[in-house]
Amino acid sequence: MAMTDRVNTRIDARLKQAAERIFEKLGLSAGEAIRLFYAQVDLHQGLPFDVKVPNEETLAAMRELEERLEAAYREDASESERLHEEWEPVDAEVTE
Question: Are 72 and 79 in contact (CB under 8 A)?
Fold first, then answer.
């Protein structure tokens, strides 16, 4: 299949870096991960995961995490990374 089309988008730098660290652990480039996502959308004929409106408890947890991450990033980038790792299991649980 010839790859001739292009996807360009703007994304938060911290989100991009966090995702690319995960892609690296998986042995994927960002481009490969995006192509994989598109292939899964085609396969599932929709998003390959549930998209739900979060409840108030989840929204509060998301706001708390964002506030903590912003504060940690201002103080120490390694603390920001620790918080990302701390919340990975919670994020996985929310997306199930």
Answer: yes
